[in-house]
Amino acid sequence: MYLCALKFHIMITPISGFSKLSKEEKIDWLSQTYLAHNTNARKILTQYWNPDSGLQQLHEEFTENTLSNYYLPFGLAPNFLINDRLYAVPMAIEESSVIAAASKAAKFWSDRGGFKAEVLGTEKIGQVHFMYSGDGKKLEHFFNSIKSTLLEAVAPLTKNMEKRGGGVMNMELRDKTKLLDNYYQLHCTFETKDSMGANFINSCLERFAETFREAAKSHEAFNATEKEIEIVMSILSNYVPGCIVKAEVSCPVTALADQGMSGEDFAAKFVRALKIAEVEPYRAVTHNKGIMNGIDAVVLATGNDFRAVEAGIHAYASKDGKYSSLTHAEVHDGQFRFWMEIPLALGTVGGLTALHPLSKIALEILQKPSAEELMKIVAVAGLAQNFAAVKSLITTGIQQGHMKMHLMNILNQFQATTQEKEVLTSYFKNHNVSHSAVEQQLEKLRS
Ligand code: MEV
């Protein structure tokens, strides 16, 4: 085994100045260094170029060392009735069944009064993390005396944001020395209106940090060591438990009858499935992953930062000390209720939202929503996705619908022709899809 591994080991030396090479030179280097065995490598990478529109240059300017473009399907889930307004929701996602499931859940609930959504808070957070080994009381006194100077120092940065109703909302000195020796924070809260606000928050924090450290140097009550405030870092937090949206649906249990199952039985089993996700982290993670299928797809389509959203939501799922379900359900007086509260820091201006032509059109499809409206739409997409997944799980099982949608991927894996695809799509309308069943039918067809 070891000799075998050695046989294919290639000696690679580090490259310097890679970013300075042209795109073609980068691909040359890559083809010779890591992809020498793959004669198609260049073609695979270059077939996604879009040289005749401004798009290629735009993409290359988003990030460094771009070689190609990585496409995802951009689709639409119509019929989302949210607070009595009908939306068609754009989604960017590769997983076969997600858009179909979202569309199905949207239609199901639009016939039962639709989704209700409400923004409960829009507070964003950023922190200056610093070390100070002196007297805590003196630090507190210094902070109180300098707070207005800190806020004045960011006035040029906050001017435009304040015109839009946002800005720095609050700043506190937090003593964290019980967690870590000498560790303190300036814990700041912000309102960033329709922008996600990451650049705004980080710029303010860095200005706070610089002003704070400089002022400490000349503060008369500090001794020589106390003047030494070491700024460790200044950065926004992607944990935003004060930037919360709630989405919910409800209907009489009788309206839930499905596939030979009574509405009462369906609702009771649905609630049980959610209780399992509330108490069992192994299930909760998969349950929440299903929610994120809907959330990420809309977040990505609208040019928002899905990594920030993922990090914040999963942290929120653990807020009570144990990872748990983000959604909840109950039956009360014959009424079924299904809801979710999640933190979502989103923007509909700035960032990629206006730069990426597909994000721009996604926001146009959503009728140019404010950040708060987008929070509601995204949360609803997550709730709908979870409803569809749990509904399948407790009735037919997930594979039936999932594999039907996955059929085309399997056919493509076997390089099926258009004609073969037509024949087998029709055949599998009435048969269970599995990898081996598709292989078998294809073999039959080909022989
Ligand atoms: C698959 O992408 C998502 C599901 O696993 C979610 C769930 O189990 O609830 C179907």
UniProtKB/TrEMBL annotation:
Cross-referenced InterPro entries: HMG_CoA_Rdtase (IPR002202), HMG_CoA_Rdtase_bac-typ (IPR004553), HMG_CoA_Rdtase_cat_sf (IPR023074), HMG_CoA_Rdtase_NAD(P)-bd_sf (IPR009023), HMG_CoA_Rdtase_sub-bd_dom_sf (IPR009029)
Keywords: NAD, Oxidoreductase
Biological processes, Gene Ontology terms: coenzyme A metabolic process
Coiled coil start-end: none
EC number: 1.1.1.88
Domain of life according to the entry: Bacteria
The reaction(s) this protein catalyses: (R)-mevalonate + 2 NAD(+) + CoA = (3S)-3-hydroxy-3-methylglutaryl-CoA + 2 NADH + 2 H(+)
Protein name: 3-hydroxy-3-methylglutaryl coenzyme A reductase
